[in-house]
Amino acid sequence: MTGYCEADSVGEAISVRVESLEDLVRLASSLAGRMVVMPVYRFKTSKGAVYFLQMMYKDYYRCYGLPVIYYYLREGDDLEASRVKYIIARADESGEKVEVTDRVRPGWIAVPVINLAEKPVYVPVEA
User: Fold this and answer.
1) Which of 4, 19, 27, 118 is most buried by its number of CB atoms within 10 A?
2) CATH class entry, domain 11-115
3) What are the pLDDT digits (tens) for 101-122?
4) Strand 67-75 to strand 40-44: parallel, antiparallel, or no bridges (unpaired)?
5) CB of 81 within 8 A of CB of 114?
6) What is the DSSP string of the chain?
7) Strand pairing category for 95-101 and 14-17
8) Residues 117, 127: Cα–Cα separation, whole Å
9) What are phi and psi of 39, to 5 degrees?
10) pLDDT at residue 10 above 80?
11) What is the rounded CA–CA span in Å between residue 126 and residue 37?
12) Is 9's pLDDT higher than 60?
């Protein structure tokens, strides 16, 4: 059956490390104008926490449906999952502000964070 994926045949995705949490949030919030909610996933590592977005190549020749993981390793992140529910962002004349929080604020873009119990097998992040 074409396009069918069994659990034991799941391979790794392509990973792209971004330079900052702000870069990851900018990517996620860019879809908000299209009414697409793009959650950020998070799992803890021995170094901190990995925040990532899962996207797909849509119209790239011969790579249709190829999963791409954009991720950021936030070293020293020891926040409990109950304190990490949203990443909020705001850009104004004073600059760009991004915060990890457990609540939303009026006038800020709120990107939901999904805390995972462990690293998914298809995420090729070594952290």
Assistant:
1) 27
2) alpha beta
3) 999 999 999 999 999 999 988 8
4) unpaired
5) no
6) -TT---GGG--PPEEEE-S-HHHHHHHHHTTGGGT---PEEEEE-SSEEEEEEEEE-SSSTT-TT-EEEEEEEEET----GGG-SEEEEEEETTEEEEEEESS--TTSEEEEEEE-SS--TT-----
7) unpaired
8) 15
9) -70, 155
10) no
11) 27
12) no
Give the type of residue at 16: V
The number of residues making up the chain comes to 127
pLDDT value, residue 73: 93
**Residue matched to tokens 């926490």:** 49
In what helix (H) or strand (E) does residue 24 lie, and over which residues does it extend? helix 21-29
Q: Look up the pTM and report it.
A: 0.82
**Which of 1-5, 7-11, 100-104: highest mean pLDDT?**
100-104
Q: Which strands, in side-by-side order, build the sheet including 48-56?
A: 14-17, 67-75, 48-56, 40-44, 109-115, 86-92, 95-101
How far is residue 5 CA from its own chain's centroid? 23
Cβ neighbours of 50 (radius 10 Å): 23
* CA angle (42 as vertex; 85, 25 as ends), nearest 5: 70
